[in-house]
Design brief:
By secondary structure, this protein is mainly alpha-helical. It has twelve helices and six strands.
Length: about 300
């Protein structure tokens, strides 16, 4: 499928939001004719109605959706037909800026404290572009606004040792979450993860972007931990995953190892669906330890 259409009159936010809507459609497996409501998308994506409406209009121009008077939008294409959808390179500039700032900070090219004007000059961007990216980094727990003016980075993973420590932390909290009293995984959400992992094994590993592959893994692990119904466990994992995201995107993607990883995810899902929590906890710890050794070594 061709890229989403470019327009000089479209805010960079709209193509990015349209792409998030398409990712949700694919994840949920919606059929042709499925009705998308603004309120559903607002709740799902955490965005107000106005940009959602513009993103839906944007998707209609590429024949992904069609509108009906007073009835909103319906899918004109099956979710399976959207696998090749990409956004135009210019529309991805905000994502590129986000990653460039994060990587420069990790590599020590940016100081702990930064000013908007300095970032504008360094990256050749408008103040609005810089502010959007910095506000997104705030939501991702990567940076804070200083009282008055300026911004200050939170600690990021800057090397193999911190990456190794992140896996050790996950090996502590994720298996333990499964053993929490009253643990109950969201079965519907877990089955979504199951479909995602199966789709990856059916060709998605070779077809999906780095971001999509990382997102599927994050979705699975956060769904598992969410079953403990402990906000501190889940918030800790979410914060760590945001920090990992920058490191993951900046490294070479080894797709060959992902087949085994997906198969292990599916095996763990089966254990959880059978409520075999002790076995699932032990299996998850082994799974994380294997990933740690493969990606960053033992450090011994």
């Amino acid at each position: 499928m061709s890229a989403l259409p470019e327009s000089a009159h479209v805010s960079p936010l709209i193509p990015a939001l349209a792409t998030r809507i398409v990712e949700m459609i694919r994840r949920e497996g919606f059929p042709v004719g499925h009705r998308l409501t603004e309120q559903l998308l607002c709740d799902e994506l955490g965005v107000s109605r106005s940009p959602i409406r513009k993103a839906l209009q944007y998707l209609e121009t590429s024949s992904i959706l069609h509108s009906e008077p007073n009835r909103g939008y319906r899918l004109a294409k099956d979710a399976s037909e959207l696998s090749g959808l990409t956004i135009a390179e210019d529309d991805a500039s905000e994502e590129a800026l986000y990653m460039k700032i994060a990587q420069d900070r990790i590599n020590g090219l940016l100081e702990e404290e930064v000013a908007e004007g300095d970032l504008m000059g360094r990256y050749g961007c408008s103040r609005l572009q810089v502010q959007r990216v910095l506000n997104r980094m705030v939501r991702d727990s990567m940076i804070d606004r200083k009282p008055g003016r300026g911004w200050i980075f939170r600690p990021l993973m800057t090397g193999a040792q911190s990456h190794r420590e992140s896996y050790r932390f996950r090996m502590i909290i994720e298996p333990a979450a499964i053993l929490e009293p009253g643990y109950k995984v969201d079965v519907a959400e877990l089955k979504k993860c199951q479909r995602e992992q199966m789709d990856l094994l059916r060709g998605g590993i070779e077809r999906c972007t780095h971001a999509e592959l990382y997102g599927a893994g994050v979705h699975f692990h956060e769904t598992v931990v969410a079953g403990a119904h402990n906000r501190f466990l889940l918030d800790s994992l979410k914060t760590l995953n945001q920090m990992r995201r920058v490191v993951e995107y900046g490294t070479r993607l080894d797709r060959s190892r992902l087949h085994g990883q997906c198969e292990e995810h599916l095996e763990l899902i089966e254990l959880l669906l059978k409520d075999e929590r002790m076995e699932a906890s032990h299996f998850l710890r082994q799974h994380l330890n294997k990933a740690r050794i493969t990606k960053v070594g033992t450090g011994e």
